[in-house]
Fold this protein.
Amino acid sequence: MYKSNLLLLQTMVLGMFMYLPILHAGDVTSSQSYREALREMQSHQADSGKSRFSAEDRAVMEHSATALTQRMPDPGIKTGEHAPDFSLPNAYGKSVNLKRQLEHGPVILVFYRGAWCPFCNLHLRLLQENLAEFEHYGASLIAITPQKPDQSAAQIRKSGYPFEVLSDLDNRVMQAYRLYFEVDPALAAVYKKHGLDLSEYNGVGRNVLPVPGTFVIDRSSIVRAMHADTDYRQRMEPADIIAALQKIASHP
């Protein structure tokens, strides 16, 4: 019963926050943890009104969340595994290759759902606020999403992201990192009914998403730290990323 109620709460949270605008500079403080920023965001929206989703909608969402947790109980490649190489287009059509990027230093690889996801926007903004600290250890940040490059370009213009945002248009990288899943048709229909058409972001027929995941990869392509959770609210803390980079620097 507790697990069921928790999943229902998660779906209601999505109903409260799905339509928030993309976060911009000044919306978070660089010293904040992700958990602190999440609590602050939720607190600011607590009085925004009741969920737009009907009981039937919430039942569909709860069923989908439960099924995904059962289908992917332990998502993502693990610490110590070799990170699969890839080449993907960035928001402006330029191909970016992981192996080549690793020649310059460690890579923080972040898979996110899309510009429509407020939890993703919150996490990316916090990571941006910590870029100088990441770069102190020679690391670069790369974000991967299933959305089309034009959607990413619009997101970059709004949020001023200085890091690469890549589009996994054939799902191969999400699959290689064991994060890929197809959104249940019933859930996709609920989203669309409430204004979120995934095909507008990802392309026709692509009701696909990654489980949000973060991987800290050293120059030899080994995953040194990771976080992935089917609860889309949960993200890797910037402090944990920095701790992993410190270990890489001290034990290259």
